[in-house]
Design goal:
The structure holds 2 protein chains of 2 kinds.
Chain A lengths: L1 H86 L5 E5 H9 L4 H11 L6 H18 L1 E2 L9 E8 L3 E9 L4 E10 L4 E8 L2 H7 L1 E2 L1 H19 L5 E8 L7 E9 L2 E5 L7 E2 L2 E2 L2 E2 H12 L3 E8 L4 E4 L3 H10 L3
Parallel strand pairs in A: 2-7
Antiparallel strand pairs in A: 3-6, 4-5, 8-9, 8-14, 9-10, 10-13, 11-12, 14-15
Chain B lengths: L1 H85 L2 E5 H4 L6
Classes of the chains: A alpha+beta, B mainly alpha.
């Protein structure tokens, strides 16, 4: 009997142990499963948050995209219309910035001007005398055909067309950059609020002055410089030749234009309405600037300020407040 | 004493039976709970994968639109360049253009 009781106690003990083991085993296992479930749920929530954020970023992106596309469409319409207008022009053309054109047209010469120079000089025989004689002949002939006419007496300009864009309006869009994890502000051309205009513009320069063969001192001087450039190109020999602007010292703001040719150092020839510096045997003579200036002042009967210059090849211009400044520049920089 | 002995043995048998039943009940309960948890994990995993796929799709949709925006901005820049370059330009007849390099 004792043995049976002992066995029973042992079985009971084993069953208790089994119960405890089963409980602990399943609590552990199911606990792990619960933890896993939580982990997966957490990951899903994170992904859902990411999804919601992506959707949140999408709306402004979509709005920004449609804004840019809409702007592009409007801008392309303007471009097409502008191109159509340009295609309708009855002549071949090129376009350039006004400042570039101004500089290049100022002292350009036409084939007609080149013919004029060749006709007057008969070409160059290669001697210095003939060169200086040709410079004088060109001046003399141009002076004889040029007629002074105030701007009121007729237009001294040519009308070209000028393209003007009224203004550019810009817009901003914001998009989220996943790479940089931040919002980015992007600028784009939103509209051309006033569209464009192709309007006439007045341009001046030696070819126009030469064709008109009349005008003010400005027309006379720029055309003469261009005629000399034509001659230099024909002969292959050249001297620094500039358009000079002068003003009577103590006078008002009125300016006068003339041509100056530099030989070397400070030796120059001044060609105003008359040849200021001496000529001999139909040749231009070059004298020191001080002498040229004195003769020039005698011609005008007043003290003069050489206040500015313009030249081509390449186009340059400058202003001076004193004659000393002009002299320094003439000697040191004019090539 | 004999009654007591018989009673103790019966009690032990009863307890053993109870413990055996409890064990079985625990096994059944926890196993059932384990199955339910595994199913929940599987479901959750499926939902997670679905969500990951959705995010990938949305991200791709976003990136695709971003690329399109980039292209539209490139076109916009070209248009801007056109307007900036053409503005302030003079239309020079070819007859004049040919002589400009002489000046």
């Amino acid at each position: 009997m004792r043995a049976r009781t002992l066995i029973s106690i042992l079985i009971v003990a084993l069953l208790v142990a089994s119960n405890v083991y089963t409980y602990l085993y399943f609590v552990g296992l199911n606990g792990y499963l619960r933890f896993t479930l939580q982990q997966v749920a957490m990951r899903r929530n994170q992904v859902l948050a990411e999804l919601s954020a992506t959707k949140f970023y999408y709306d402004p992106l979509e709005k920004g995209y449609s804004n840019v596309v809409e702007s592009n469409k409007k801008l392309e319409e303007v471009v097409t219309k502008l191109r159509d207008d340009l295609d309708d022009l009855p002549y071949n053309y090129t376009t350039m910035l006004y400042e570039d054109l101004r500089g290049k047209l100022l002292f350009a010469y036409t084939d007609e001007m080149k013919g004029f120079v060749l006709n007057v000089t008969g070409g160059w025989d290669g001697t210095d005398k003939d060169f200086r004689s040709d410079l004088y002949k060109i001046y003399k002939e141009w002076r004889s055909v040029f007629k002074y006419a105030s701007p009121q007496e007729g237009a001294h300009y040519e009308t070209f067309l000028f393209i003007n864009i009224g203004g550019l309006n810009y817009g901003d869009i914001e998009v989220f950059s996943f790479e940089e994890r931040e919002w980015k502000r992007l600028r784009y051309l939103k509209e051309v609020p006033f569209g464009y205009e192709i309007r006439p513009i007045e341009v001046v320069g030696a070819p126009i002055s030469f064709r008109n063969k009349q005008g003010v001192c400005w027309d006379f001087a720029v055309a003469l410089v261009a005629l000399y450039y034509a001659y230099y190109d024909v002969t292959g020999k050249s001297l620094p030749t500039i358009y000079v602007s002068i003003q009577g010292i103590g006078d008002g703001p009125e300016s006068h234009a003339l041509v100056m040719i530099k030989l070397e150092g400070d030796r120059v020839a001044i060609l105003d309405w008359e040849v200021i510096t001496p000529t001999s045997n139909g040749m231009i003579e070059f004298v020191p600037f001080e002498m040229a200036k004195r003769l020039h002042e005698e011609y005008w009967g007043r003290s003069l300020l050489y206040k500015g210059f313009m030249k081509g090849r390449p186009h340059e211009f400058g202003h001076f407040s004193t004659n000393e400044e002009f002299y320094e520049w003439l000697v040191r920089e004019l090539r | 004493m004999g009654f007591k002995r018989i009673g103790l043995w019966n009690l032990l048998v009863f307890i053993a039976a109870l413990l055996a039943l409890l064990n079985l009940a625990m096994l059944a309960y926890f196993s059932f709970e384990g199955i339910k948890l595994r199913e929940a994990i599987r479901d959750e995993q499926l939902l997670y994968e679905e969500a990951v796929q959705l995010v990938a799709q949305e991200t791709e949709r976003y990136r695709s639109l971003l690329r399109k925006l980039q292209e539209a901005l490139d076109v916009n820049r070209e248009l801007e360049e056109f307007f900036v370059n053409i503005s302030g330009r003079v239309i020079v007849p070819q007859s004049y253009a040919q002589i400009l390099e002489r000046g």
